């Protein structure tokens, strides 16, 4: 029993440390959001969101299939899965199954909700990447248009000859 408490406390400490470290990343990023807003960062956001979306999908599938297997095993002995929760399945090992059905259902809901959130974040990351790509294309086309206008302004409209240079180079004979 003491080992379970140590594991639980170390897990909670790990979550608290991860939360503090995530704040150390999130706060500076929000303060300097305009500096990090480019196509490369948007691309990394998309890749990261898709990876985490896939991992959360795998976690949700593992929980769901585990829940299905547990329910199939329990319905061999009890009329339904929720009736098996709270029953003495193995008294010798001291296994407590009270609220197991509810807790596993909650974990399943949380895993699928997490996956749905990552899908939404992936869509928003894709939209941000497309926007950054559009902005880069707009800047490139504006640069080409500006160069085109500068080149046209360099020609004299009356005789289509370039304007004389301000500092003509010396002519060599």
UniProtKB/TrEMBL annotation:
UniProt key word Nucleus: no
Region (Disordered): 154-173
Pfam families: Claudin_TMEM179-179B
Recorded topology in the membrane: Multi-pass membrane protein
Domain of life: Eukaryota
Subcellular location: Membrane
Keywords assigned: Membrane, Transmembrane, Transmembrane helix
Transmembrane segments: 12-31, 43-70, 109-130
InterPro entries attached to this UniProt entry: TMEM179, TMEM179-179B
Family in the record: Belongs to the TMEM179 family.
Protein name: Transmembrane protein 179
Species: Riptortus pedestris
Upper taxonomic lineage: Eukaryota, Metazoa, Ecdysozoa, Arthropoda, Hexapoda
């Amino acid at each position: 029993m003491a080992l379970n408490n140590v594991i639980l406390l170390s897990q909670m400490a790990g979550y608290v440390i991860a939360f503090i470290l995530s704040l150390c990343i999130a706060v500076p990023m929000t303060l300097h959001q305009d500096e990090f807003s480019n196509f490369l960062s948007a691309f990394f956001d998309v890749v990261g969101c898709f990876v985490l979306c896939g991992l959360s999908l795998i976690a949700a599938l593992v929980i769901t299939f585990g829940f299905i297997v547990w329910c199939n095993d329990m319905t061999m002995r009890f009329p339904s899965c929720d009736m098996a929760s709270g029953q003495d399945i193995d008294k010798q090992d001291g296994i407590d199954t009270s609220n197991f059905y509810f807790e596993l259902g909650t974990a399943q809901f949380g895993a699928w909700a997490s996956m749905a959130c990552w899908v939404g974040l992936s869509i928003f990351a894709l939209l941000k990447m497309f926007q950054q790509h559009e902005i880069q294309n707009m800047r490139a086309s504006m640069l080409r248009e500006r160069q085109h206008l500068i080149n046209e302004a360099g020609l004299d409209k009356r005789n289509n000859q370039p304007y004389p240079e301000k500092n003509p180079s010396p002519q060599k004979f």
